[in-house]
Amino acid sequence: MGVLKGAISYAKFQVEGELPDDLHQKFMARIRTRTFKLLTPEDEDDVAVGWVPIERPYDDEISFRSDGVFFGSYLNLALRLDRWKFPSTLVKAKMAAAERQWKQKTGKERMSKTEKTELRDLVERKLRRDGVPVTKVVDFTWNTVTGELRFFGKSKVILEHFFELFEKTFSVKLVPSAAYTIAMQLGLPKNLEAALARVEPAVLHARGVS
Predict the structure, then answer these.
(1) Which residue from 107, 144, 169, 180 has the least number of CB within 10 angstroms?
(2) Domains held by the chain: number
(3) pLDDT tens digit string along 190-200?
C-alpha cells in the first residue's frame, strides 16, 4: 500500500522517455492488457504479477476507470504479486506422508527420481487447493508532467517485478533518483556536466574517528 494509507516509505525514481499525446487513452489500454490475474492451483507458474486499482486491490474481478487511475497529472496504480509459498517443514511432512502411502500402495521401497518429482507435484497442488496464495500489494504514484515517481516498497524482489512490468507497460525507462540524476535534469552547461562526472564523495569527519 502507500498512496492512500499505510506507512510513508518509498523509493523515488525518474521516468525517462517520450509519452504519447493521447496519454490517458493509450495508457488505460496498456494497463488493461497487464491487469493482475488470480493464481489457480492448476497454474504452471507459482507467481502472478499485474496491475490493480489502488482503491480495490483485492477484488477478484478487476476493472479500471480512468478517473480512478488519473488524478490531474498523476497516474496512480498498485502492483499486486501473489505467489504460492508454503513452509518447508510443512512440505517435507506432507511429502513424507505421501511417500509412505505410495510405498504401501505399490509395495516398493524406493522411488525413482521421476516418481518422486511427480509425487511432489501432486503434494504441492493439493497444498494449493487447500490454501491461499501469499499476497503483496504496493502502490505507486507517477507525476507524468515532471516524471517523478514514488514506489511505496523497497523489497528487491518487488522492485524487480515493478521495473519489468512498468517499463513493458509504458515503454519508458525508470532511473533511481539520486543527486547526480537530479542535477542532470536541471539542464546544466556542458562544462558543469563534465565537472559533475568527476565529483567524489566528501569526507565529513576526521579519518580514524568513530
Answers:
(1) 107
(2) 2
(3) 665 555 556 66
